[in-house]
């Protein structure tokens, strides 16, 4: 982490505004990792991390490859490897969506999305990219996840899973801010994930 980036596990609204602390504080660790070695690496940047604790070792974090097929099959937008510079928009706060990228991608420019962003490969975010929801980056080989130049922000949660040697890099004024509301929208409010609806009930 270089420059003035931040990771914040305290609860924010869907647009990144820090919420008042409720009695049953809905705070998460800033960073969750699988191993003590990763915890030591992350702890070097604890001045840029906030939350119920800066970093937590959690060996129960699931492998995304075991469940992302559900999201991929329901994706409304699909991209291959490349650099995407144009102003782009995916979903809304009331109608979140799923974006799937297969390969190494970079999003630049004035881009904004709501819902689930799934990347099978490496991801670079730059410009004024804003994502409200969940970002999942995974691959069986090494991956690079970078918040690069500009002010790319994620309000929700980020999950990165790659082989040993993978990198998670934050630069500039980028931010990852936990948002229970944005995570909930991504997990439960995407219509294409609703496999059935109760129309009638008879007892």
Question: Mind explaining what this structure looks like?
Answer:
It is a single chain. The protein has helices at residues 36-43, 68-73, 180-188; strands at residues 6-8, 31-33, 49-50, 55-57, 77-84, 89-90, 97-107, 112-120, 123-127, 130-138, 144-150, 153-161, 167-170, 175-178. It has 203 residues and is mainly beta. It has one domain (6-192). The strands form 2 sheets. Strands 1, 3, 5, 6, 7, 8, 9, 10, 11, 12, 13 and 14 form a 12-stranded parallel sheet that branches. Strands 2-4 form a two-stranded parallel sheet. It is globular.
List the helices and strands and how they pair.
Layout (H helix, E strand, L loop, with lengths): L5 E3 L22 E3 L2 H8 L5 E2 L4 E3 L10 H6 L3 E8 L4 E2 L6 E11 L4 E9 L2 E5 L2 E9 L5 E7 L2 E9 L5 E4 L4 E4 L1 H9 L15
Parallel strand pairs: 1-3, 1-14, 2-4, 5-7, 6-8, 7-8, 7-9, 8-10, 9-11, 10-12, 11-13, 12-14
Shape: globular
Q: Say what oligomer this is.
A: single chain
Terminal CA distance reads 58 Å
Number of domains: 1
Largest sheet: 12 strands, parallel
Strand content: 35-45%
E-strand count: 14
Low-confidence stretches: 195-200
Mean pLDDT: 87
The percent of residues in helical segments reads 10-25%
Class by helix and strand content? mainly beta
């Amino acid at each position: 982490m270089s420059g003035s980036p931040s990771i914040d596990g305290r609860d924010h609204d869907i647009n990144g505004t820090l919420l008042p602390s409720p009695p049953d504080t809905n705070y998460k660790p800033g960073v969750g990792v699988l191993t003590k070695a990763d915890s030591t690496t992350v702890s070097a940047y604890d001045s840029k991390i906030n939350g119920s604790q800066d970093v937590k070792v959690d060996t129960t974090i699931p492998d995304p490859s075991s469940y992302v097929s559900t999201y991929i099959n329901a994706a409304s937008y699909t991209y291959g490897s490349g650099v995407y510079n144009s102003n782009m928009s995916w979903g809304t706060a009331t109608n979140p969506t799923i974006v799937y990228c297969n390969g190494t991608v970079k999003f630049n420019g004035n881009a904004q999305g709501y819902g689930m962003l799934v990347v099978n490969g490496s991801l670079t975010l730059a410009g004024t990219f804003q994502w409200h929801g969940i970002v999942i980056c995974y691959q069986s080989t090494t991956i690079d996840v970078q918040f690069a130049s500009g002010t790319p922000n994620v309000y929700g949660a980020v999950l990165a899973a790659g082989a040993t040697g993978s990198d998670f890099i934050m630069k500039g004024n980028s931010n990852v801010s936990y948002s229970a509301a944005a995570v909930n929208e991504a997990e439960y409010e995407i219509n294409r994930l609703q496999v059935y609806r109760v129309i009638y009930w008879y007892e």
